[in-house]
Amino acid sequence: MSASKDRPVLLTGASGNLGRALVPALAASGWKLRLTDIAPFPDALPEGVVFTKADLNDGPTILRLAEVCQAILHFGGISTEHPFEVVLGPNLRGLYHIYEAARREKARVLFASSNHAIGFHERPAGNGELLDADCAFRPDSFYGLSKAYGELMGRLYWDKHGVENLNVRIGSSFPEPADARMLSTWLSYADLARMMDKFLSAPRIGHAVVWGASKNPATYWGKDHRDRIGWEPEDSAEDFRGKVGGKLSGDPVTERYQGGGYTAMDYTRDKPSPKDQFSLD
């Protein structure tokens, strides 16, 4: 697909923190944006950008918003852990509406997945063995489970309908790292925006997975498909090590697994000691 800045791009979840960071960056790059969220957009809209309040559960409205769009940047839905019935509507049914819209419009999809889709993989032991993007799903929460489902929906829609999709397993995207774990998982807003621009401009993607993290020496993650869009991060969490390097949770589950605190939520197994080996895969 040849990108054209004359055709619109639909951004869901526009009123969230990541959406608000992306809007000015993408508008400044010349992309014609349509924004949507269930919450009002709290900032001034750049010139030519249109916002429509909508619920992802409303399939007809999502189809209408996606008309003639060349791409959908899907950041909408429940973005933290909640009971399953809360996650179900926007994160499963809502994603179906996104992919049906993409299929009809022959648009590509960027799905804001999460490290929580693989959160129960253990952190690297410092021996250089990093987790590659073709690893097994090991979700750490209902939220993480919905992200694994979303990536599999992208697999289905590529195999069956040819809908190109990039699944970005976002680590921790904030203005700056907040604790020691984020020295491995942090994704700067600037690196995220550069990734979106590369995604929209890439000639061909297929079905791809990219680790959503900046250029962090302490990373947990290895090979992915970033070469398909020509993206390389430029920022690094290492600049913040002196500020947050000592900020640990003190919880053995949180510190053992890549998903951090999400793995410890509602955890009912006995808490492991560092040397416990109880996984049977």
Automatic annotation (TrEMBL):
InterPro entries: Epimerase_deHydtase, NAD(P)-bd_dom_sf
Family listed: Belongs to the NAD(P)-dependent epimerase/dehydratase family.
Database matches in Gene3D superfamilies: NAD(P)-binding Rossmann-like Domain
Organism of this sequence: Pararoseomonas baculiformis
Name of the protein in question: NAD(P)-dependent oxidoreductase
Keywords: NAD, Oxidoreductase
One Pfam short name: Epimerase
All copies of domain NAD-dependent epimerase/dehydratase, residue ranges: 9-174
Region (Disordered) residue spans: 234-281
